[in-house]
Specification:
Layout lengths: L1 E2 L20 E2 L3 H8 L9 E9 L2 E8 L8 E4 L3 E8 L7 E4 L25 E7 L5 E7 L9 E7 L13 E10 L4 H11 L8 E4 L16 E4 L4 E8 L5 E6 L4 E6 L2 E8 L2 E3 L4 E7 L6 E9 L11 E7 L8 E2 L9 H10 L18 E13 L7 E7 L2 E3 L6 H7 L30 E3 L2 E4 L3 E9 L8 E5 L4 E8 L18 E2 L1 E4 L3 E9 L3 E7 L2 H6 L2 E6 L20
Parallel strand pairs: 1-2, 3-6, 5-10, 11-14, 13-21, 20-22, 23-28, 25-26, 27-35
Antiparallel strand pairs: 3-4, 6-8, 7-9, 9-10, 11-12, 14-19, 15-18, 15-20, 16-17, 16-19, 20-21, 23-24, 28-33, 29-32, 29-34, 30-31, 30-33, 34-35
Length: 571
């Protein structure tokens, strides 16, 4: 059975994996609530411009259905989801369903020119995927240019009906989306940077559910208000949808108990501060037991190097019911901008739940042992203002975007689009976090790394000290992975693997690589297709810190990429 909407642009169907899609029935909202207990918060998916005022200035922003942040997609584990996206703006668009495994359905993953050509103005595309074995908090966002600065929203995957959470049942749930705001058009910001060869301007403010809170030299007072009842437990689904900033999140006078990250359950642990890189999600329990009053919710950036960052602290308020206006607001102190220790403590506290029902299936043997160095460089540029431009690279290779989708080229055997010779280790090893080489120029190419179906991979992501070492939140499409190790300085292949956690490492889809340090991840390549791997700081993705894994088909149709849909966009 399968449902859709007549004369509407969003289609969400709630299917079992074996459903017959040709049987179409139509449901009212009441029938959906009764039969499925799924709360659909939107019924159309149009990409449109919306005039929006923040920081006492108005500009048109790219949105879905005119909302910022965009609408939340609610579904259950193993539901099939169809979203028909119609592009009503002048720019090409795509949507990436960040963290959704997309088992065999890479055509719906969304990164432009990797798995699909973009949706051109006036055109539509139906994304069709199943949330197989996933439950928790994820996000969706545009995956072309810098459109995701405002074109983003939450994905909430509820457990199967009748399956409880592996933690105390909350009384209520709240989605909190963190972001950045520029007074200028973000496309103009990055285009100017590419023309000059310099780094783009940092954002002007941070947002909580689209609001900055009070700001200096502006009468704008809009802030996100979280109204709560005393003595209740709330499940907060916190999402970092910022373009370029890793963020701290804190609620004055309250601790949070982390129970899930990136839609994977964790062993519960209590903290007063969450740390999220762009693309990461953290789900935490909040108990409202601090007394009736008004408490600041605050977000602030993390940056432990010389790179410029927007230091504005975004604020909102947690307000207990029956709080009188005369009660003073309880404030909080945020970690220093360079609080490396705070990020390390948070990262080390994360452990997979690793229960009988939710085991941590860490690969214990490795077929591919890879070392990727990541960082920035300088290339000559005759048209740039200073004769050079900033670039970024993996293993000193800056990724050149193709003009047609790599997945399409792979599926149809189209030659000349990409090569499968991405190096599994640096071609010229050096002291990655020590004295930097004098030559900061990178190589270029559209290269992928080929993996056999069901092979196991250990990938050590090594930050380098080129120009300025920096924390890099890196995202792998198409897979969850286990973060088995991390450290500062250069990875030592003789000593560091002995300290790996192979029992209950945290399971994620996006992981921060510490400044001038390394992170080791393991995953099983059980998803055929082409899967993007990149830094989730959008400036670094733009500069070329990206590559793709090509996972070959296995045996038979159940281990092979499904055929492309008829409405697949053309370049």
């Amino acid at each position: 059975m399968f449902m859709s909407w007549v004369q509407m642009l969003l289609f969400v169907s709630l299917l079992s994996p074996t459903s017959v899609q040709s049987e179409i029935r139509h449901y009212s909202f009441t029938e959906m609530f009764t039969n499925y207990e799924i709360y659909l918060h939107y019924v159309g998916d149009q990409v449109v411009l919306k005039n929006t005022t923040r920081l006492c200035a108005t500009k048109p922003i790219v949105t879905v259905n005119g909302k910022f942040p965009g609408p939340t997609l609610y579904a259950r584990e193993d539901d099939n989801v169809l979203v028909n996206v119609t592009n009503l703006i002048k720019d090409n668009v795509t949507i990436h369903w960040h963290g959704v495994r997309q088992l065999r359905t890479g055509w719906s993953d969304g990164p432009a020119y990797i798995t699909q050509c973009p949706i051109q103005p006036g055109r539509s595309y139906l994304y069709n995927f199943t949330l197989t074995g996933q439950r928790g908090t994820l996000l969706w966002h545009a995956h072309i240019a810098w459109l995701r600065s405002t074109m983003h929203g939450a994905i909430v995957i509820l457990p199967k009906k009748g399956v409880p959470y592996p933690f105390p049942k909350p009384d209520k749930q709240k989605v909190i989306v963190l972001g950045e705001w520029w007074k200028s058009d973000t496309e103009a910001v990055i285009n100017e940077a590419l023309q000059t060869g310099l780094a783009p301007n940092v954002s002007d403010a941070h947002t909580i559910n689209g609001h900055t809170g009070p700001v200096p030299n502006c009468s704008y007072r809009g802030a996100y208000n979280l109204h709560v009842e005393n003595g209740k437990t709330y499940l907060l689904r916190v999402i970092n949808a910022a373009l370029n900033d890793e963020l701290f999140f804190k609620i004055a006078g309250h601790d949070l108990t982390v129970v899930e990250v990136d839609a994977a359950y964790t062993k519960p642990f209590k903290t007063d501060t969450l740390f999220l890189g762009p693309g990461q999600t953290t789900t935490a329990l909040l108990t409202t037991d601090s007394g009736i009053g008004k408490y600041v919710i605050a977000i602030s950036p993390f940056m432990d190097t010389v790179v410029s960052v927007d230091t504005f602290t975004g604020t909102g308020y947690l307000i207990y019911n029956n709080t009188l206006p005369s009660i003073p607001t309880t404030v909080t102190t945020m970690p220093p901008v360079n609080a490396t220790w705070k990020t390390l403590v948070f990262a080390e506290s994360l452990r997979s739940l690793n229960s009988k029902q939710y085991p941590a299936n860490v690969p214990l043997t490795v077929d591919h042992s890879l070392l990727f160095t990541i960082g920035v460089g300088i290339d000559p540029c005759a048209t740039c203002s200073n004769g050079s431009r900033a670039v970024a690279a993996i293993n000193n290779i800056t990724f050149d975007m193709p003009t047609i989708a790599i997945l399409e080229a792979h599926y149809y055997g189209i030659k000349g689009v990409f090569t499968d010779d991405f190096p599994g280790k640096p071609l010229m090893p050096y002291d990655y976090t020590g004295v930097q080489p004098t030559n900061l120029q990178t190589m270029h190419g559209t290269r992928v790394y080929r993996l056999a179906y069901n092979s196991t991979v250990e990938l050590v992501i090594q930050g380098n000290s080129m120009l300025a070492p920096e924390s890099h939140p890196t995202h792998l499409h198409g897979f969850n992975f286990f973060a088995v190790g991390r450290g500062l300085g250069n990875f030592n292949p003789a000593k560091d693997p002995k300290k790996y956690n192979l029992v209950d490492p945290v399971e994620r889809n996006t992981i921060s690589v510490p400044t001038a340090g390394w992170t080791a991840i393991r995953f099983r390549a059980d998803n055929p297709g082409v899967w993007f791997f990149h830094c989730h700081l959008e400036v670094h993705t733009t500069w070329g810190l990206k590559m793709a894994f090509l996972v070959e088909n296995g045996k038979g149709p159940n281990e092979s990429v499904v055929p492309p849909p008829r409405d697949l966009p053309q370049c």
